[in-house]
Amino acid sequence: MAADTPDPSEPALERLFYHSERIRFVHWQEFSGSKTAVVLTGFVAVLTFVTGLSNLSQPDVTYDGPLAALIPGEPGVVQFTGVLLAFVLGALVIGLQRRKRLTWYLTLLVLPLVTVLPLTTLRPTDVPLLLSILVALPLLLVNRDAFDQRIQLSSLQIASLSSIVGVVLYGTVGSYALQDQFAGLETWGDSVYYVVVTIATVGYGDITPLTTEAKWFSLSVILFGTGAFTVAIGSLIVPAIEKRMATAFGNMTPSELSLLEDHVLVLGHSDITESLLDELETEADVVVVTRDVDDAAELNEREVNVLTDDPTHEETLHDARIDDASGVVVATRDDANDVLAVLAARTANPEIRIVAAANDRQHVGKLEQVGADEVISPMAIGGRLLGRSILANESAESLFDDVDDT
Fold first, then answer.
1. Which residues 6+ apart lie within 8 Å of 158 measured at CB?
2. What residue stretches are annotated with the RCK N-terminal domain (predicted)?
């Protein structure tokens, strides 16, 4: 404290304007965090689109960049590819905003590809794009830990996406192998173009099969491609629509329920379960089953998994995947309803551990009789803690261990 006392021998102006401590004028963490990285990536997407479209609109574009000689074929294709990559980056920005780890990896892959665009032409207008990429990449790497959310896909979604990739590979390799039996198909690029327009059912007619074998091959690409594309759209779009509708009502979608495993089911919601949710937040996945729509909507806003249905029905518990749950908690202010919930849970899964809370000490035995493995009386525990705290002159928190032993 003595060091903070101003020296009376120093001039007043020096004590007023010159201080030993330093005050930060700029908090660099606010400018180098994950939000800045996401915003800068979005800025790169906009610049990529504008730069690519600007070069495409020019009648004569000189390719004087260091990579121009390394680009196979026509360098102008790079400008069109840059426009496509701008849309890809736009989609990746949405994933980065949701902190998806897979999106982070894909962004690190796409950004170096975008650098090919300015390094091909190296026009003065391409310099801002190049500089933005050089700043965005280090920011993404520094904030790697901020993008920690996994993308959860069901087995059907994984299979449908894999089927599309398989059909594209099948059609590309097969058409190139049969190029002598097609009119207008000479390169790998022609093969990819043919497969895409065939699966999309566009069929411009510029590439046509000439033999019976090529026609049967084209027919197989149409059948496999449209089938895989239809299944993929259904498996990806329908869950998204379900999630939108479920969010409005505070409910989990069937796709989300199918991913549950080793979770804790909380049957009913009350002030008793609030502290329970805080306790289990970092320990296990929790699914609250309640028929109260308002409570469900509030829990959903707090990103708590909710199933809006009657917790006393066995069908509801099977929808909540009680067979894969690690335990069940029943704790509301209605002991009669809790008895029905315990009975339904025990019937749905005879092997699962059930812990219940009894508001009235006289109902402890009833909850045990219908199948609860352990019954806790919050009122009894609270009263004992009050008594011990006043007699021992200690805080209630210090007595929790003694209560657990009893």
1. none
2. 261-377
Tens digits of residue pLDDT in 33-87: 788 888 888 888 888 888 777 766 666 666 666 666 666 555 556 666 777 888 8
Q: What length does the chain have?
A: 406
Distance (Å) of CA 23 to CA 17, 18, 20, 26, 155: 13, 12, 10, 9, 54
What's the order of all strands across the beta sheet hosting 327-330? 305-308, 286-290, 264-267, 327-330, 354-357, 374-376
Q: Is 406 strand, coil or helix?
A: coil
Q: How many Cβ atoms from other residues are within 10 Å of residue 120's Cβ?
A: 26
DSSP at 208: E
Q: Quick check: 195 and 175 in contact, CB under 8 A? A: yes
Residues 166, 178: Cα–Cα separation, whole Å: 18
In whole angstroms, how far apart are CA 350 and each of 22, 285, 312, 370?
A: 65, 21, 15, 11
Tell me 89's DSSP state.
H
Task: Kindly state the tokens that stand for 226.
Answer: 């449209």
Given a contact cutoff of 8 angstroms between Cβ atoms, the answer to whether 229 and 278 are in contact is: no
**Secondary structure letter of residue 149 according to DSSP:** B
Task: State yes or no: pLDDT of 22 exceeds 60.
Answer: no
DSSP for 242-259 reads HHHHHHHHT---HHHHHT
Residue 251: burial class (beta carbons within 10 Å; 0-12, 13-18, 19+): buried
Domains of the chain: 29-146 (no CATH), 155-249 (1.10.287.70), 254-403 (3.40.50.720)
- Decide if pLDDT at 17 tops 60: no
What tokens appear for 124 in the block?
């003065």
pLDDT digits (tens, 9 = 90+) for 83-138: 788 888 888 888 888 788 888 888 888 888 888 777 777 777 778 888 888 888 88
Contact 316, 289 (CB under 8 A): yes
Task: Answer for the pair 305, 257: CB distance below 8 angstroms, yes or no.
Answer: no
**What are the structure tokens assigned to 405, written together?**
């032993």
